[in-house]
Amino acid sequence: ATSPAGSSSKLRSKMDSAHSIAQSEVYSIVAKVIRQIQNTDDQKEWLQGLQEFNALLTGVAQSPLQSNLNEIKMQFTTRYYTMAANAIIKTYAKWSTKITAENRVQYLDHFFLKGPCHEAFLSLSNIFNTSSHSLVLRQGINLLDQFIQVDRIRDLICSFSLVKSKEMNDLASATLQNNLYERIISDLASLPERIANKLELNIKSNFYPKSYFQRIAQQIDASLKLIYEFIKDGHSYNLTFLGNLLGKITMIGHADTIFYYLLPSWTINTKQNNLWQSVIQKLLCTIPDSSLENILITLLTTIKPSLSPNNLISRLLGNNINESSKLRFLFTKKFLLLRSFKNLSIPKNIISYLHLQGLQSLLSETFLEVLDAWCKKSAIQYTGYEEHLYLSQVLLILCSHLDKKEVISNQQAVLVKLLHGMQVHLENNTIQIRRLGMIVGETLTDVLDNGGNRLRFEYEENDETDEIKALQKRLPKLQDGELEHTISKYNLDEQEGNKHPKDTLHSQGRHIVSTLEESSSKVATTYEELDSDDDFESYDMSNDTVVNKIKKPSYIRDCIEGLLVNDDPHRVDVCLHTIESLVKRNPSDLPNLAEEIVKILLHLQNESAAEDYNIVRLSAMISTTVQCPTQAVKYLTTEFYKTNYSLQQRLDILEIIAKSAQELSSPHTTDSESKKEAIPSDNYGTGPQHRSKTPNWQQIVNERIKLKTRRFAKGRPKSRVKSIANRFAPVAGLFFFPLLQHFDRPLNTMDLLGDDSFVLGRLIYTLGVVLYAAINTTIVDSMGKSLLEFLWAVRFHEEAYIRQSIIFSFTMIILSLPSYVLIGNADIYEFQAWMQDLIHKDPNSECRKLAAQSLSLLQDTFKKELLPEEK
């Protein structure tokens, strides 16, 4: 008697011998047919070769064979199909114009559409790499079109997904060796581009990217439904190939097209089916980490956020967040802290998913991390407003979905962070940032302390604040029958928008007519009500001026005495409104009184609560500085760095200097010149009006001479421009250089490089204005070089406002200095490189915009100097 082990070994040896015999027989047939179709010049022999290949494919051999036909078929499809397919493709160009349509369908189409799906697809897609014959390429496109049409892509996906565990392990080792997964996925994803590269515009519409990937999405959906049916029968499955395929398609930018078709199907299938939910959840688990982010963004953007039990995002993801560290990182870190989105469906869906999964501890932990980021001063300074707005919105959404127990347990920690964050926001120079701090502070304090007095701020209400405040409410539950995604809704909206344009216009017209009728009826009733002789309109006294009993002073010294009075605010107000007109008369004693006037006005307090106090006061100081620049500006620039001044007074000094420099540099006509032009001529009839009407005999003679005189070259008659002395040139240095001193020395009342950065920004802006006012003067070169050194020292300031002021002053340097001076200054090129870094790296969008404009201006200046236009 033989043992079972011995019998099994004999059986295995018989099977191996049968495999080897079948392999040798199939190889001999395939080699013979390949030689036949490659060397023949007879169409019948070529068709006979194709017929022999189709016989091997179906298991019906034309030649007598020793082996089993099933064994022959298996050996051909697994080992020699690709060899036969490549031989057919290489020889097809020779017979493409001679073969009939019937033979093409019977032999060629049957061979590729009934063969092993993955090998047939690789052979067809390889045509666009190996062949350049137009007929071969077109036949390849037709076969691929039919390949997709008869659901062979579905079969291809299922062949990799529905395998037994042992076969799955063998297949995995084979794919690792031959990169089969990668080849097929790469060919599927790149097929439209490869076809377009070969045929350019002469391609089928089915292979346009959008149409092609819609068909691929249909094949993916069909394969999932087939896999689902097999799973119900107890088959094992592996969705790695399908997950990699989805990841590849989304990586090349077609996520919207794929999920536009898949998501409605998934919504219906997973509604009340746990097995379907399990399939989709495992599919999303197999997606590579590099592609998971794009897929999640598409899903989160398209799905409607809601707190309905078992909502769509919960059905698709299930408990994956506990199994996938990548998903956990994306949901709790990257999508909420590191990236920003205009579509708030993304954070709403994430937070609703965490809430419905019962992950309150994770939700609370995420809330504290977002609050930490919101409170950091560096996060505000080094990110743009849009990013910080998104962070604030996420914080409010998280706050509205936190459990009360979690809030109470972390109440003290949240309150400490919130108070620090509010302080950081309220100290910021930007109004929008301060407003965000107020809104978030109001909301969080309401949540932390329901019973106490509510914290309320005064700020301007607008659409943005309304949208932010609306985030305080929890997400609603979807109504019965309401769509869980936005895909079909968009379709319906488009169809309704294009359905009845005439009806829409008609309804709009009826609305306009009804509105006009209502307004006309209201006007008629109004006239009827006003048609009465008994009531008279009251006299309008809104523009009447109050009679002031205090007499206006006629001399500057009287004005100064009036400004120094402490117990009569009305007299101070009269003197304040009078002093500017007296200063503009430029009396002889003004130079001796200019410094005293500026000093008094700079320290003057608004005792009478006049509305135009600050405007009148600054205007008077500017006029004084313009009339006596040397005396006034020496005092102002010296006092700027003194200790006994408030920040507002220092800002006033900078504004006076900037406005005075602009006024001094602008050309003007003196009062005596304007009076001379206004005085009429004593001789009647010789004024400009009469001269234009009465012709002058000398003018007539000159015109006749001009007409009879021949000139070979004659330029345009140029009117001589009257030159006016630049009043700012002699005093430009006094306005500029003293402000550059001591900026790095902190005072008790001012620290330019510390908390008082707003004053530093105004200082930089003022220096730029003064430099531009000194254009075309001899001192402008040294002023520009000094300003460059100053700007270089503060260019890396953390405040966006300071960087914007630096860009402005640098632009003034470009406009003020001659182009040859700019080209010869090495610091300019350093600033040019810094500007380029700003364009690419600065977190503030306004800084990037200003830097691009300034850099463009600098490049244009260089071009005009180095490449002058030919005249």
Structure overview:
The chain contains 44 helices and no strands. It is mainly alpha-helical and 871 residues long. Among the domains are: 181 residues, no CATH class; 146 residues, Alpha Horseshoe (Leucine-rich Repeat Variant), CATH 1.25.10.10. Helix 20 packs antiparallel against helix 22 and helix 34 packs parallel to helix 39. The radius of gyration is 43 Å and the shape is elongated. The N terminus is likely disordered.
Would you tell me the structural class of the helices and strands?
A: mainly alpha
Number of helices: 44
- Overall 3D shape: elongated
Mean pLDDT across all residues, rounded? 81
Rounded to the nearest angstrom, the radius of gyration is: 43 Å
Poorly predicted regions: 1-7, 488-535, 671-694
Please give the alpha-carbon distance between the first and last residues. Answer: 114 Å
Strand content: under 5%
Number of strands: 0
Q: What's the helical proportion of residues? A: over 70%
Largest sheet: none
Sequence-ordered SSE layout with sheet pairings:
Elements: H1 4-39, H2 43-58, H3 69-95, H4 101-113, H5 117-125, H6 127-130, H7 134-149, H8 152-161, H9 165-178, H10 180-199, H11 209-232, H12 240-251, H13 255-269, H14 274-285, H15 289-302, H16 312-317, H17 320-323, H18 325-338, H19 345-356, H20 360-375, H21 377-381, H22 385-400, H23 404-409, H24 411-426, H25 431-448, H26 463-470, H27 487-499, H28 501-530, H29 556-563, H30 569-584, H31 590-603, H32 613-627, H33 629-640, H34 647-665, H35 671-678, H36 688-693, H37 697-708, H38 732-736, H39 757-773, H40 780-793, H41 800-816, H42 819-823, H43 826-841, H44 845-866
Helix pairs in contact: 1-2, 1-3, 2-3, 2-4, 5-10, 8-11, 10-12, 11-13, 12-15, 13-15, 15-19, 18-20, 20-22, 20-24, 22-25, 24-25, 29-30, 29-31, 30-32, 31-32, 31-33, 32-33, 32-34, 33-34, 34-39, 39-40, 39-41, 40-41, 41-44, 43-44
